[in-house]
Design a protein that fits this description.
heterodimer; A: 76 residues; mainly beta; Ubiquitin-like (UB roll); globular; B: 263 residues; alpha/beta; TIM Barrel; three-stranded parallel β-sheet; 9 helices
Chain lengths: 76, 263
Amino acid sequence: MRVQVNGEVREVSDQLKLSELVSELSLTPERVAIELNKRVVRRNQWAATMLADGDRIEIVHFVGGGGRQWAEGRRQ
Amino acid sequence: MSTAAAALTDHFEIANRTFHSRLIIGTGKYRSFDEMKAAHRASGAEMVTVAVRRVPLDRSSESFLDHLDPSLQILPNTAGCYSAEEAVRTARLAREALNTEWIKLEVIGDQTTLFPDNEQTLEAARVLVKEGFIVLPYFTDDLIMAKKLLDAGCPAVMPLAAPIGSGLGVQNPTNLRIMREQLPDARIIVDAGVGTASDAAIAMELGADAVLMNTAIAEASDAARMAQAMKLAIEAGRLAYLSGRMPRRLYASASSPTSGVVR
């Protein structure tokens, strides 16, 4: 099925949990936060969250900031 | 009370936290992590801001937070958001990732000036306060907006001195003076536009509780040294404010007796 991750369309297996997507992307769970269809999914819920076709996922982390550094990778 | 003792007891509170440093700084635009860490140390700041961004998926990225001194309080911001909705979503993500209720709210209205969209800022502030966030909003130095943000439940307000990254210093001292006079109990933190030490001192002399800056330090040739300058400037400005300055006069007022001069 197709989901959108950080604005990019991604082909993933049909039965995929959010926690599995995080592993697939080689991300450190403690360093990121995830939003699924505009709702934050708490880390302890990732394993219980099944993705569906067309889902929009935003995965964010922290970067240096405090001023003009907004242009790159701005969330939609 | 001696000056040293006065400096030690001069603290301020936001929500449930006490701060001894009146300098809050950002983490952006430094040439290197080492430079950033040195500047943070020299500044004496107790709180630093970080931005929330999409994780790059095509390459591995180290955690930015690992480069921050663990004793610093991290204040996530909603930099880059152009609507209340984006800001609220960003704040919720930041809260989840950092396990903090604190959020520095920025909703920008225009790409060139990075001036805040006050209306969207107020809307986002109302939503976030209801959700239990400790909201520190960035806005233009407008007294009426300050009152609305405080009434909405923001424990502090952050009027800009000048556009973000402009280094112009306080452009409207009168506005800040009025704001301090009309809101004597409010926490007012001047944010954005500070360029050099005297700008920070002036902000404090106008009655600000603290100053937030990023570019002024990060883009100085010697960031750590400028951070130290800012620390001292903010202390000086605060002391001057507490000392009750002399009045300005149009004409001279002699300091020495006018009679008894040899002629």
